[in-house]
Design brief:
By secondary structure, the protein is α/β, with parallel strands linked by helices. It has 3 domains: about 70 residues, Winged helix-like DNA-binding domain superfamily/Winged helix DNA-binding domain (Arc Repressor Mutant, subunit A); about 90 residues, Periplasmic binding protein-like II (D-Maltodextrin-Binding Protein, domain 2), CATH 3.40.190.10; about 100 residues, Periplasmic binding protein-like II (D-Maltodextrin-Binding Protein, domain 2, 3-Layer(aba) Sandwich), CATH 3.40.190. The protein contains 10 helices and 12 strands. The strands form 2 sheets. Strands 3, 4, 5, 6, 7, 8, 9, 10, 11 and 12 form a 10-stranded mixed sheet that branches. It has a two-stranded antiparallel ribbon with strand order 1-2. β8, α8 and β9 form a beta-alpha-beta unit. Belongs to the LysR transcriptional regulatory family. This is DNA-binding transcriptional LysR family regulator. It comes from Pseudogracilibacillus auburnensis. InterPro entries: LysR_HTH_N, LysR_subst-bd, WH-like_DNA-bd_sf, WH_DNA-bd_sf. One of its GO terms (molecular function) is DNA binding.
Length: about 290
């Protein structure tokens, strides 16, 4: 088995068809089919089941695919490391960010570009579960996320804590100078809360604060998208509880922002990256700006 055979197998698995893999590799179909047959003969196993036009990995094929993926990741990272030796910071830096953390990005990127003008950026938005998966799949190099997450397999730098605030329609406030609201008062208000697609996060943190006081909130909407929730609050459908920085890019003229009294609720966030992955110079310099 050689690297060319392994690369051909890997691309067939990725594309699910010999035809599409051949187009991606810029070769004809017969040599690709012959390479796969030779690899199966060499290993003495069937790597794919043919399901119509679709090529589906067998158990043996799935094992080889995972090993090949790790191998090609290492090869790609080795090439980047070698190319970066003796060179300045350049290339494309892929960053993931929770929408509720985006306020940390613009000024940091502006400072970064002033220092390293040859670096371009690829930005990806998603919740913490989605972004950790993108890190594992090597689609991004670093991510700025809300905690908690399972930190196993990740290195991280914790960022300053943020206060959670209540955002509520102006016409729901009876006292013009009201600055605080209690957990007990929130029970009487329809709530729209951030909730990850998967995993434990801000939703569970806020729910625990209600449970600590023996209270059950009236939650009428859950969403991983903070912009959607703030839009619904602006339309008078309910109130929400969000990290304070999420309001920086929103028009707050139709809503009131209240602090939560008698309850300490803070949002923790971090910039994270894979422990076992070579970190490019551009990523290292980006992380340094958060220290």
């Amino acid at each position: 088995m050689n690297l060319k055979q392994l690369r051909y197998f890997y691309e067939i698995a990725n594309e699910g068809q010999i035809t599409r893999a051949a187009k991606k590799l810029h070769i004809a179909q017969p040599p690709l089919s012959q390479s796969l047959k030779a690899l199966e003969d060499r290993l003495g196993v069937i790597l794919f089941e043919r399901n119509g036009r679709r090529m589906e990995l067998t158990d043996a094929g799935a094992v080889l695919y995972e090993k090949a993926k790790e191998l090609f990741y290492k090869i790609d990272e080795t090439m980047i490391e070698v190319k970066e030796t003796g060179k300045g910071v350049r290339g494309t830096l892929s960053i993931g960010c929770n929408k509720s953390c985006f306020s940390r990005i613009p000024k940091t990127i502006r400072t970064y570009q002033e220092k390293y003008p040859q670096v371009k950026f690829k930005l990806l938005e998603g919740d913490s579960y989605f972004l950790t998966k993108q890190l594992v799949d090597r689609e991004i190099e670093v991510a700025i996320i809300r905690l908690p997450i399972d930190m196993n397999g990740f290195s991280y730098l914790r960022l300053p804590e943020e206060e959670y605030v209540v955002v509520i329609p102006n016409n729901w406030i009876n006292e013009p100078d009201k600055k605080m609201i209690s957990i007990e008062e929130l029970v009487e208000i329809p709530l729209l809360l951030l909730h990850r697609i998967r995993g434990v996060g801000q939703f569970e943190l806020i729910m625990d604060k209600f449970r600590d006081k023996g209270l059950t909130p009236n939650i009428i909407c859950e969403s991983p998208n903070v912009d959607m929730l703030l839009g619904l609050v602006t339309e008078g459908l309910g109130a929400t509880v969000v990290p304070k920085s999420t309001l920086l890019k929103h028009n707050t003229s139709n809503v009131s922002v209240l602090h939560i009294e008698d309850t300490h609720i803070v949002s923790e966030s971090a910039i994270i990256w894979l422990k076992d992955r070579y970190l490019s110079k551009s990523a290292e310099r980006f992380i340094e700006l958060f220290n």
